[in-house]
Amino acid sequence: MRGMPFKLTLCCLLTIAIAIAIAESPALASQKAKRGRPAQPSRVTVPERKVPTGAKVAASEDAVLALQVALDRSGFSPGVIDGSLGGKTRIALDAFQRFAGLTPTGSPDAATLAKLRVVDREALQSYEVTSWDMAQIKPPPRRWEDKAKAALLGYASALEMLAERGHCTQALVRRLNPSVQFERLAPGARVVLPNVIEPAEVRHAASVEIDLARKIVFTLDARGNVLGLFHCSIAKDKAKRPRGQARIVTVNRNPEYLFDPAMWPEVKDVKRKLLIPAGPNNPVGLCWIGLSLRGYGMHGTPEPELIGKTGSHGCFRLANWDAIRLGKMVRVGAPVRFTTKSDLLTASR
After folding, report:
1. What is the CATH number of domain 207-339?
2. Contact status, residue 116 vs residue 96, Cβ threshold 8 Å
3. Cβ atoms of residues 112 and 78 within 8 Å
């Protein structure tokens, strides 16, 4: 069984939009605050059910999860999937609506949900853990000298590995699988994850635009229309944020990383350059897209939940899965433009 019975019927489309709207209404937020309930997603259960007409908060959280999964599959990243309708999800909605020829509102109306084909695909899947998955779990050393000696910088835990397979937070993996003992996971085990299998068709981008203010990477066609959107972290030091334009010079999957202590002033105990092995916990993750600006690139990260929250040394960090997808879309020689605030989104976002 590859998918879980979480597919929504057509009659639920409008109900989903209403459920989400109610969940984010000021009145409801006030009521929840008075009751002392934390404003966080509840566990998404697996048994088949329809979203109730009463639009309860739990139902709206299920709806947001389905929405985020659909956006992720469509190439418009909602950020790390968590079941919460935050700013990254709204930005992804805005960009997708433009791509689909809809009015860009950033809200999940019925027309947008239909274009995203939320009713056609199940939001959850039953994922079977493989031997290869388990072989990738190799907690990385802390010291850089020890990292350089390792054969693989693997996942720190089974939970981290599963969260990456589902493009989601570790907290969501726990909520979807309350009875699973992750430390005892073995090949053949089944867990519930977001159904984020991307389509076989790849949208090839003619160029890339990076919005430094919103921390977004856009892929564009030859006419400048948005084909995809990915969230990123940018340089903490404003002086290191590039301007103007560059071009892509290389795309590498599973890259090694040359650690230069001169680029890591916070590291005091390393005095020489080190070659760091590949793996999901490599500093540049599972894909490196090098730019014509020396030392700059777009790449994956071992800490996807910190995307947009922490600054880099200069490069553009994406979730590993987004970096891999971006690497499939771009070609060597494609131009990359840096903007302070792109006009590819609604101005208020």
Report:
1. 2.40.440.10
2. yes
3. no
